[in-house]
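Researcher: Dear colleague, please comment on this protein.
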Amino acid sequence: MGAVGRQAVVLGGSVGGLLAARVLADSFARVTVIERDVLPDGAATRRGAPQAHHPHALLTKGAHILDRLFPGLLSALVDHGAPVWDDGDWSKLYMSIAGHVMLRHGLAAFDHNQMAMYFPSRPLLEAAIRRRVEAVDNVDIRDGTDVAELTVTADRRRVTGVTVTDGDGTASQDLEADLVVDAMGRSAHTPALLDRLGYGRPDELHVKSRICYVSQPLQLKHNSLHEMIVNIHPVPGRPTGMFLTINENDTAIFTVFSIGGNEPPTDLKAMIDYAEKYTPAEFFNAVRAAEPIGNPHRYRIPSSQWRRYDKMRRFPAGLLVSGDAICSFNPIYGQGMTVSALEAVALQDCLHKGLDNLAQRYFRSTAKPISTAWQLATTSDLNFPETEGARTAVTRIGAKLTERLLTVCETDPVVAAQFFKVSGLIDSPTGLLRPSIVRRLALPKWRHS
């Protein structure tokens, strides 16, 4: 499509910001990405993304979007050693959710290539995306650069650009822009800016699980583990869980975590002891035989948070928000990068109609995928007494339906496949209410296999 503006500026060079830059490049003559960190040349963890030390999931929907925006990206990840689950073999996934171990035998009842799941580390994936965004002719990524403030018109109705400074704050520059996208995560500038300009802050929803992760990177012995992912969620009465995620070239991340503000240990032996009671022994055989890579890393997430920009009656022109700056989730469910990808698609679609009322159209459009992911995650979180948040009648009914669904997923290949599509954000949760699925949910347990 033709250019709808001269320049767009994206604040933040993480995955959400890079995806926004990619779609903006189709509609603006120039796109500039401002990133505070000095970016690494290759796949390395940067200071501004401490979560990169921990497991990440690229859900199926997110993989589809990335491959459309960056043709060949998924193949390149595999070429760099990232594992891919593309044969539908349930035995390669160990998923224990709310105490229910998902189906562990046979082949998934769907198109295996269409539902493939990729397991790159966060640094490898982010580097691969950044390399492709940098290759776009009209995109410029400026790292080592801080955002000082956003500039606005005298009547405060439009954002006109941004003032940036170099890393040591000794030099500043004003960048004019027809559109600024705030992708600076939970600490984004936009709520304070809106308050200062007289628009007020957006309402915020919070579900406070107080998650704490501790992760140890490992170099596994080759073929020491059949599974690509081991994912054991907490259950009421046991607010702890673990991940063992295989990444490129036999590297892995072993993680223990808790909800409710408890602090898991940061010593590898103590981490194993922490999770041993609820984890099958064969997985720890692989962990004990592995070589630690560096030291464990701790990461805390106080709450899932959704800033409801879609509910604001007034919003300045020339400004949008994306990624964690709108909504950040409990990372247990691996939704963040895929929701950022869905927001990029929403932005791409909205830009086809130009810049008029862009913010209102964009925020309404992004609220749909965010709402789906939010309901899936928070319904599970609110099962735990340690979690602080509003428990409605809908939440309670949803929890009972989810319990029945997960019970059936232990043995029924059709229901397990549909659950996988919904959790991968390929299908709407309403897909679980189809008559063919509801009938199977009503069957006695012994008939599901």
In short: The chain has three domains: 5-56+123-205+303-379, 210-301, 390-447. Residues 210-301 form a domain with the Alpha-Beta Plaits fold (CATH 3.30.70). The mean pLDDT is 92.
